[in-house]
């Protein structure tokens, strides 16, 4: 049970929440409450348990620098491994989150200059905190498509992030909606046991995965010599940074990466009609680039059927495609992504005058992707423009957590972000993003806020550039007046 009053309340116990707690501990902030609505730590890796779930970032880069893991099973970790890794980090760090404790609301109390959190759980209560850290994740709330008749489907229907393991899929006719990262991992697994029809609104750019399992000797070598893991992490980091030009629109780099993807498709799909249906008509990098060696062969072999159009309606057990074709199904799986640009938690947080959702009505914004005007002593990790399309998002979380710890360590009074500096930061991001494939690439993606057309999820630069910007933040981003008065 957390105390009634703490210095810092952290909402969420995934990578961002644990990263924040670790950074604060190293900064000797003693009074920290980590609040988690789920039954365990792990965030998205707790929630996503669909067949084939795995990371598409190399495992030795997809972890905290302070907690290398020599036991990863392979180049790309399975989802259950990542959840177990996070559970192990929490234990090693002595982080004891309050589980099954959702934040019902958080409001800034101007008179007391604290945050008041209304908490759910077994014993609902008010928690008072000097500072609030929102580490709620960006891929937590499933996006359910507005498909006419969806409610009439008589069989099991669930989202990939809410997988129903009680359903026996053996021999079933399964409709899968979506061709993003989850579907590309899922379909080859389902095709082993079931009759799968995949509804594709638009195809993805897919490049070879080329992962392999580590041998016992390799894992033993990682465990015996920490410098080997450190050097590997450095190599993987540099490799990721080199991918940025191809994802962000550099002409030569994008053309080279596009050729790799097309060659991969041609090598695995010989049927010209099917190959054409699987060829994107938008710029490389506009959507998330996927990694798979198994997806194309399943479709090419006829082990799964590609419906090269979106699901337009549902009539009982009949799934009607935009093409007019009708498919019978016993089970319907939605691999339709998440509410990414409009975060549900924003409606629960009220600052000095408005809710965070109202402040973000034109798209998510934050100075340094972390602090927001009108929301004193509040930090958002893994939020506005803090994701990546070319490297590990854990790297960004670690930089934000370090910024959080430095800022709170030198805090004197209330930290109020200057509106002009957030506006300048946002304008800079808008300018940097304008010519990139994410904005101008001719696709619809989950990086861009549909209300305004602004890039609000991705950082339009390298990790190096993000690190440099946050390291250079010197406190001038905050209004000085009240802090100076209280210090004098």
Structure description:
This protein has 488 residues and is an alpha/beta fold. The chain folds into two domains: 285 residues, FAD/NAD(P)-binding domain (3-Layer(bba) Sandwich); 141 residues, FAD/NAD(P)-binding domain. The chain is 33% helix and 16% strand. Strands 1, 2, 3, 4, 5, 16 and 17 form a seven-stranded mixed beta sheet that branches. A hairpin with a 2-residue loop joins strand 12 and strand 13. It is globular, with a radius of gyration of 23 Å. The C terminus is likely disordered.
Shape: globular
Helix vs. strand class: alpha/beta
Count of DSSP-assigned helices: 16
Low-confidence spans: pLDDT under 50, at least 5 residues?
482-488
Q: What share of the residues does DSSP label as strand, in percent? A: 15-25%
Q: Please give the alpha-carbon distance between the first and last residues.
A: 36 Å
Q: Helical residue percent?
A: 25-40%
Would you give the CATH topology of the largest domain? FAD/NAD(P)-binding domain
- How many runs of DSSP E, i.e. beta strands? 19
What top-tier CATH class of the largest domain fits best? Alpha Beta
């Amino acid at each position: 049970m957390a105390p009634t009053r703490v210095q810092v309340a952290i909402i969420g116990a995934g990578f961002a929440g644990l990263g924040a707690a670790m950074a604060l501990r190293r900064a000797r902030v003693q009074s920290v409450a980590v609040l988690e609505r789920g039954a365990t730590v792990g965030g998205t890796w707790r929630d996503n348990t669909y067949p084939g779930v795995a990371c598409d970032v190399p495992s030795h880069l997809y972890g905290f620098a302070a907690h290398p893991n020599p036991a990863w099973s392979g180049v790309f970790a399975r989802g259950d491994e990542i959840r177990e890794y996070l559970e192990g980090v929490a234990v090693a760090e002595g982080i004891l989150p309050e589980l099954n404790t959702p934040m019902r609301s958080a409001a800034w109390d101007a008179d007391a200059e604290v945050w008041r959190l209304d908490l759910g759980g077994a014993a609902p209560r008010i928690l008072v905190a000097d500072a609030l850290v929102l580490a709620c994740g960006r891929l937590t709330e499933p996006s359910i498509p507005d498909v006419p008749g969806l409610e009439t489907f008589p069989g099991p229907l669930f989202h990939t992030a809410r997988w129903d393991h009680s359903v026996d899929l053996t021999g079933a006719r399964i409709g899968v909606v979506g061709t993003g990262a989850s579907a590309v991992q899922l379909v080859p697994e389902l095709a082993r046991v079931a009759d799968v029809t995949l509804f594709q609104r638009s195809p993805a750019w897919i490049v070879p995965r080329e992962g392999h399992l580590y041998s016992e000797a390799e894992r033993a070598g990682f465990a015996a010599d920490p410098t080997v893991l450190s050097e590997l992490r450095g190599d993987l980091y540099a490799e990721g940074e080199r991918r940025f030009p191809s994802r962000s629109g550099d002409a030569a780099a994008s053309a080279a990466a596009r050729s790799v993807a097309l060659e991969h498709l041609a090598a695995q799909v010989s049927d010209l009609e099917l190959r054409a249906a699987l060829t994107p008509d938008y710029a490389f990098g506009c959507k998330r680039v996927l990694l798979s060696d198994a997806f194309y062969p399943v479709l090419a072999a006829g082990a799964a059927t590609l419906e090269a159009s979106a699901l337009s309606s549902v009539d009982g057990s009949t799934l009607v495609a935009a093409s007019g074709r009708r498919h019978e199904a016993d089970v319907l799986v939605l691999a339709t992504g998440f509410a990414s640009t409009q975060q549900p938690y924003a409606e629960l947080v009220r600052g000095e005058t408005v809710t965070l959702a109202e402040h973000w009505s034109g798209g998510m914004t934050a100075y340094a992707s972390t602090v927001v005007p009108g929301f004193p002593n509040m930090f958002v990790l893994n939020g506005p423009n803090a994701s990546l399309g070319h490297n590990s998002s854990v790297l960004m979380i670690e930089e934000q957590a370090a910024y959080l710890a430095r800022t709170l360590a030198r805090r004197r009074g209330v930290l109020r972000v200057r509106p002009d500096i957030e506006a300048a930061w946002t304008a800079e991001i808008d300018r940097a993003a304008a010519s990139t494939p994410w904005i101008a690439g001719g696709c619809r993606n989950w990086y861009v806020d549909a209300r305004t057309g602004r890039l609000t999820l991705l950082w339009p630069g390298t990790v190096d550039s993000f690190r440099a910007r946050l390291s250079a933040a010197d406190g001038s981003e905050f209004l000085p007046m009240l802090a100076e008065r209280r210090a004098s």
